[in-house]
């Protein structure tokens, strides 16, 4: 019986918010993740943009991210709480070539600790890894900070794509999938636990 | 050359028609993007639709784009084709197994039976390919002790080795040396287009004309196409001339008067309405060019002052400062010599700030694309790119200069409303509604200004990239990027610096929130001025986001992404709640 349950395909949806100083590459990270593309001349984000992407966490688990890509410009900082308030996970980005951006990232993390939900999964990522030659923030410094607070930590490059998938997978694997299973999946379990599992993944409720 | 390549066939002029649908062996494709075309008519349309510059930012880079496209085309069309042909040919020559459908390399009956490729077989062995109409009178009769006619073979001919007449030369060969097909006509001449397939010997096969020409023959449609294109261009030119005439009339209206500085936009619009057909705007729900939906708030309808048709303001039409337009127009290559005498005078500069003309992208392309393009092409140095960049930046800067003062005035008005509420006047509901409208308008303006700033910012980033790349090259003592000189790099640097400071200076203004009156606010239980300021700022940002989410919702509806719609709707509700909360906190100090 328990075996059957674990075999069943699972589908869960999570809200992810991107935070960080302007120009660290938040939008570039999202676009690399969602469309696997990169634009050297991306326009700075106005307000907050919305995108979605679905990943296969393991054979039976499909995870859909609702991504809110917030604008890093100071003027928009008041919008952020609306997007992190009930977010399940947050990706806080800094630019490894800009020291100030790590400070900004740290202050976002503090704000999340105070204001966001207690079980929010937070990842700290250092972007623009391709600009190793211009690095100003050492891996050690950022990693120690992240470890201390129990955050996911990765250095990535939206430009080359390095580490992008990893980060989202690490986030996904820390998310409470069981709690979040969408109602259709749960209902199916309640009604027909003995039914052999099918390979369908589109267990969304529509 | 624009043409179709027909492998192994001789061109037949009589059959050439621009609308003829090609058979599988032919391909007609756009020389720029390589997209397949059914006929020349489609190509003609395609060149207009796809490769006529639409985006103002594109005109800056037309050179590199075109070059890249051509390189791509060359690579896929010529190099890949050649690469793919050679192995194919060699494998065919080795095994005599045939995969192509071009009647070029062919196989014999017996090879057919063992060939795995059934589609090929059906074509090769389809009935009527080899008919009895072709004479057999030249066939050598087997005498009983025959040998393969091929000198290098001389194999004894029998049931096992085969006794086969070559249908062309008539000599007797073994099976192996008659595994070939060619097309001949009744008089046994090679005729790749009109002939029939017949079995032949290896000698006749390899003797056929162009045997070594792996590229086949080209049907050169260039001339036909030129004529077709010429007609289109001619009608384009006529349309362009009409538009140019209108533009000249408008310039005359604005500049040929005693005091051009007195002209204003609505006068110009009234004048334009007299000289062109002004499209009535009822029942038009979407922009005819980009199909974006018109709405009450930001996607407003605008008339192009040259064609009179309705367009959106989101990329399909642009409000261009009159002076700039005139300058650009006068700089046309045709009238270059007159440039000096038409150079803006002092008076023109007065017109500059106040009058602008909205032009849609189609009209812009008609009137200005050729000008900009010819300019770009005449000398292909980076300096032209820089000049186009400056030109573009100037358009955007002017736009900022147009929008920003109005915005600041509105902020001032906000202050007045403020003092009214501070002096404890109770505003009637009607006026409160007006205020609501007013705020929406303010948000709309802000958003527009922001978008223009973003465009400038993007250009600045582009420049920065070029500069950085070249600086790196310099530091490595390598030659600069193509078309770039040290002087141009300097110019690029100074444009960049200028842009950066322009952005800094002006975006600061945008960030400035209205100063509040000196009167301390008493009504809203102890909110400090600072708090009021902050809340108002928040309110503005929220209104902006409200607008953005609304447009995302429209977009999701159009794309039928209902999952997203749910999330966006929820967010919209969140934003509205937030707006209410803040408005309540602000009390009378809300807008
Ligand atoms: N070299 C390099 N450049 C990057 C990388 N990621 C982003 N960029 C560049 O950094 C700039 C800013 O990127 P965005 O994605 O717009 O930054 P953002 O964090 O979304 O900025 P806001 O929207 O203003 O908050 C762009 O010019 C990108 O091309 C990267 O991994 N490597
Ligand atoms: Mg962004
Ligand atoms: Zn094309
Ligand atoms: Zn022969
Ligand atoms: Zn032989
Ligand atoms: Zn449009
Ligand atoms: Zn027009």
From TrEMBL, chain A:
Signal peptide boundaries: none
PROSITE patterns: ARF (PS51417), RAB (PS51419), RAS (PS51421), RHO (PS51420)
Biased composition (Polar residues): 195-206
Pfam family, one: Ras
Gene Ontology MF, one: GTP binding
Ranges for region Disordered: 186-206
UniProt KW keywords: Cell membrane, GTP-binding, Lipoprotein, Membrane, Nucleotide-binding, Prenylation, Protein transport, Transport
Record's subcellular location: Cell membrane
Keyword Membrane: yes
Topological type in the membrane: Lipid-anchor
Any one GO CC term of the record: plasma membrane
CDD domains cross-referenced by the UniProt entry: Rab5_related
One biological process term in Gene Ontology: protein transport
Major localization class: membrane
Family, similarity comment: Belongs to the small GTPase superfamily. Rab family.
PANTHER family hit by this protein: PTHR47978
Entry protein name: GTPase, similar to Ypt51p and Ypt53p and to mammalian rab5
Organism name: Komagataella phaffii (strain GS115 / ATCC 20864)
TrEMBL record, chain B:
SUPFAM superfamilies, sorted: FYVE/PHD zinc finger (SSF57903), Rabenosyn-5 Rab-binding domain-like (SSF140125)
Residue ranges constituting the C2H2-type domain according to the UniProt record: 28-56
Segments passing through the bilayer: none
Region entry Disordered, spans: 1-25, 110-131
CDD domains to which the protein is assigned, alphabetical: FYVE1_Vac1p_like (cd15761), FYVE2_Vac1p_like (cd15737)
A single GO molecular function term of this UniProt record: zinc ion binding
InterPro entries for the chain: Rad18_UBZ4, Rbsn_Rab-bd, Rbsn_Rab-bd_sf, Znf_C2H2_type, Znf_FYVE, Znf_FYVE-rel, Znf_FYVE_PHD, Znf_RING/FYVE/PHD
Residues of the FYVE-type domain: 281-368
Pfam families in alphabetical order: FYVE, Rbsn
Superkingdom in the source lineage: Eukaryota
Stated name of the protein: Uncharacterized protein
Species this chain originates from: Komagataella phaffii (strain GS115 / ATCC 20864)
């Amino acid at each position: 019986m328990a075996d059957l349950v674990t075999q069943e395909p699972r589908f869960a949806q999570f809200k992810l918010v991107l935070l960080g100083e302007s120009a660290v590459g938040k939008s570039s990270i999202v676009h690399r993740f969602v469309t696997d593309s990169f634009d050297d001349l991306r326009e700075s984000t106005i307000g907050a943009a919305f995108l979605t992407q679905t990943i296969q966490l393991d054979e039976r688990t499909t995870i859909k991210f609702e991504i809110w890509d917030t604008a890093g410009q100071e003027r928009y900082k008041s919008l952020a709480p609306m997007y992190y308030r009930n977010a399940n996970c947050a990706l806080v980005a800094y630019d490894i070539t800009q020291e100030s951006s790590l400070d900004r990232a740290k202050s976002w993390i503090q704000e999340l600790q105070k204001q966001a939900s207690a079980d929010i999964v937070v990842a700290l990522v250092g972007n623009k890894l391709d600009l190793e030659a211009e690095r100003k923030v050492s891996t050690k410094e950022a990693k120690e900070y992240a470890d201390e607070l129990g955050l996911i930590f990765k250095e990535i490059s939206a430009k080359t794509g390095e580490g992008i998938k990893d980060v989202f997978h690490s986030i996904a694997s820390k998310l409470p999938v069981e709690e979040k299973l969408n109602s259709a999946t749960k209902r199916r379990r309640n009604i027909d636990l003995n039914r052999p599992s099918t390979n369908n993944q589109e267990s969304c409720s529509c | 050359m624009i043409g179709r390549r027909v492998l192994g066939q001789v061109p037949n002029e009589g059959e050439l028609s621009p609308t003829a649908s090609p058979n599988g062996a032919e391909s007609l494709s756009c020389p720029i993007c390589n997209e397949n075309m059914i006929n020349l008519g489609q190509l003609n349309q395609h060149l207009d639709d796809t490769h006529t510059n639409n985006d103002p930012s594109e005109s800056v880079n037309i050179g590199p784009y075109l070059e890249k496209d051509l390189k791509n085309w060359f690579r896929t069309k010529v190099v890949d084709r050649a690469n793919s042909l050679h192995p194919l040919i060699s494998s065919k020559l080795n095994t005599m197994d045939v995969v192509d459908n071009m009647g070029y390399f062919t196989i014999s009956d017996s090879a057919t039976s063992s060939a795995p490729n059934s589609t090929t077989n059906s074509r090769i062995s389809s009935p009527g390919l080899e008919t009895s109409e072709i004479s057999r009178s030249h066939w050598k009769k087997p005498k009983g002790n025959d040998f393969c006619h091929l000198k290098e073979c001389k194999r004894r001919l029998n049931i096992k080795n085969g006794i086969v007449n070559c249908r062309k030369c008539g000599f007797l060969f073994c099976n192996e040396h008659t595994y070939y097909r060619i097309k001949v006509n009744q008089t046994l001449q090679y005729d790749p287009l009109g002939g029939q397939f017949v079995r032949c010997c290896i000698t006749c096969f390899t003797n056929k004309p162009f045997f070594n020409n792996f590229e086949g023959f080209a049907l050169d449609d260039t001339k036909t196409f030129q004529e077709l294109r010429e007609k289109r261009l001619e009608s384009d030119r006529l349309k362009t001339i009409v538009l140019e005439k209108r533009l000249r009339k408008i310039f005359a209206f604005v500049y040929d008067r005693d005091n051009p500085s007195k002209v204003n936009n609505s006068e110009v619009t009234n004048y334009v309405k007299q000289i062109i057909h002004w499209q009535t705007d009822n029942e038009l729900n979407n922009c005819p060019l980009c199909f974006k939906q018109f709405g009450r708030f930001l996607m407003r309808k605008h008339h192009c002052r040259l064609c009179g048709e309705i367009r959106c303001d989101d990329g399909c039409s642009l409000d261009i400062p009159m002076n700039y337009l005139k300058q650009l127009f006068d700089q046309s290559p045709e009238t270059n010599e007159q440039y000096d005498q038409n150079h803006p005078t002092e008076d023109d500069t007065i017109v500059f700030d106040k009058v602008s003309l909205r032009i849609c992208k189609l009209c812009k392309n008609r009137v200005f694309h050729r000008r900009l393009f010819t300019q770009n092409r005449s000398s292909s140095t980076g300096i032209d790119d820089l000049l186009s960049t400056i030109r573009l930046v100037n358009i955007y800067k002017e736009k900022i200069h147009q929008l920003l003062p109005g915005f600041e005035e509105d902020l001032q008005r906000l202050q007045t409303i403020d003092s009214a509420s501070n002096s404890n006047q109770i505003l009637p509901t009607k006026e409160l509604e007006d205020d609501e409208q007013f705020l929406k308008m303010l948000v709309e303006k802000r958003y527009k200004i922001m978008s223009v700033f973003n465009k400038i910012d993007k250009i600045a980033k582009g420049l920065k990239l070029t500069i950085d790349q070249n600086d790196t090259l310099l530091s490595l003592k390598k030659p600069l990027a193509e078309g770039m000189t040290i002087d141009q790099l300097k110019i690029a640097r100074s444009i960049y610096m200028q842009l950066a400071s322009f952005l800094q200076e002006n975006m600061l203004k945008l960030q400035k929130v209205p100063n509040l009156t000196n009167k301390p606010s008493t009504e809203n239980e102890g909110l400090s001025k600072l708090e009021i300021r902050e809340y108002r700022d928040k309110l503005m940002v929220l209104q902006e986001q409200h607008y953005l989410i609304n447009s995302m919702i429209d977009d999701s509806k159009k794309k039928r992404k209902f999952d997203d719609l749910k999330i966006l709707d929820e967010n919209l509700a969140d934003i509205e709640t937030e707006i209410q909360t803040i408005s309540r906190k602000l009390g009378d100090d809300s807008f």
